[in-house]
């Protein structure tokens, strides 16, 4: 490498330029020779690593250069053994490339000591190989977590609640932090907090499965959130309680205040917002832009009062273009002809597709062709 490069070195106040290693050696003292040897060795290792990542792992030159900063090896023996292990355990070439790109340090692993025990543990739990491969492709860094201190206790705690190996793995896929944090530091204490407050195990299982991140906060802060939800008037035995807890834990105080202010712009009182939260906690997860768009449509296009939506906050959970707009085109015709009342609109928007067509389109033979065309035209427009 140094034979082809033209380098400039500073020696005291003099600048020395050389075009070959031989000329450099003439000027450098013994200590400098040691440094030069180290630099040459490091450069060769780096060059080998980049080349290996490109040729053996299928990474692009850009990705290989980036990945080479996190893993160093002088020969292919160790990374070859890791790739062979993955290949023998169900990973395709594309998946191996994906895993190495996400977590290049994996190539420095010992397959027998670090990787195999984790695969054998999952096999013993009946975890299918495709599901395990999916988990590792999503979050390969978990392979460097301790089997005894992270994998086993986390799996046991999750499985104790979820009663399913498959759900346990899917929960870890949703939030790999399950295997990154001490299971007895966050997960177990926070599950116990819910049990102590009378939350049914079935509700704990549902929220843990769908929103595992909720459980990974300091137990004292988690307990504070539980008490806050109780002060809002939600009772622990009902399912809305855990949904409210998940919503509250998943949002910063600043984001919460911003949402409150958006609803107030549509004349929602604090009491109305609180009542809406008790009824449908997820309405607070709707983005500010969507809130504005939905409220504008309901108030200024459909023509209902703002309070109509505050009493039915679940309406904000639907898609504006794929549900509300197509169905409201039918609703406005029916309203204009006195065939339905405004009070029934929440059922019109909330019913299943089959019930909607039967009850609000085909039920009126004379209007059905027009209603069906209005509805399908809006649906097609939303899908474009």
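Sequence proposed for the structure above (384 residues):
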């Amino acid at each position: 490498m140094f034979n082809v490069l033209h380098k400039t070195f500073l020696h005291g106040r003099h600048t020395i330029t050389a075009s070959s290693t031989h000329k450099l050696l003439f000027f450098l003292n013994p200590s400098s020779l040691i440094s030069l040897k180290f630099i040459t060795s490091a450069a060769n290792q780096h060059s080998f690593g980049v080349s290996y990542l490109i040729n053996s792992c299928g990474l692009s030159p850009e990705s290989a250069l980036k990945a080479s900063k996190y893993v160093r090896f002088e020969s292919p023996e160790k990374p070859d053994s890791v790739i062979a292990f993955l290949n023998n355990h169900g990973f395709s070439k594309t998946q191996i490339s994906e895993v190495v790109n996400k977590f290049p340090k994996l190539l420095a692993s010992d397959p027998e000591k670090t990787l195999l025990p984790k695969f054998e543990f999952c096999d013993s739990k009946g975890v299918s190989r495709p599901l395990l491969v999916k988990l590792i492709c999503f979050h390969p860094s978990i392979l460097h977590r301790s089997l005894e201190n992270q994998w086993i206790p986390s799996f046991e705690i999750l499985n104790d609640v979820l009663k399913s190996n498959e759900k346990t793995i899917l929960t870890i896929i949703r939030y790999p932090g399950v295997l990154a944090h001490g299971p007895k530091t966050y997960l177990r204490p926070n599950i116990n907090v819910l049990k102590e407050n009378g939350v049914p195990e079935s509700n704990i299982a549902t929220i843990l499965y769908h929103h595992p991140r909720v459980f990974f906060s300091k137990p004292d802060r988690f307990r504070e959130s539980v008490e806050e939800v109780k002060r809002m008037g939600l009772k622990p035995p009902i399912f809305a309680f855990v949904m409210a807890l998940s919503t509250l834990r998943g949002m910063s105080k600043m984001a919460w205040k911003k949402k409150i202010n958006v609803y107030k712009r549509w004349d929602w009182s604090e009491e109305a917002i609180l009542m809406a939260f008790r009824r449908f906690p997820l309405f607070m997860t709707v983005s500010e832009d969507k809130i504005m768009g939905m409220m504008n449509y309901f108030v200024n296009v459909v023509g209902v009062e703002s309070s109509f939506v505050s009493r039915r906050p679940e309406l904000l959970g639907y898609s504006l273009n794929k549900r509300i707009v197509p169905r409201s085109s039918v609703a406005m015709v029916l309203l204009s002809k006195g065939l339905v009342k405004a009070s029934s609109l929440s059922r019109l928007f909330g019913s299943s597709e089959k019930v909607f067509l039967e009850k609000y389109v085909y039920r009126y033979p004379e209007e059905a062709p027009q209603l069906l065309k209005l509805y399908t035209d809006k649906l097609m427009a939303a899908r474009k």
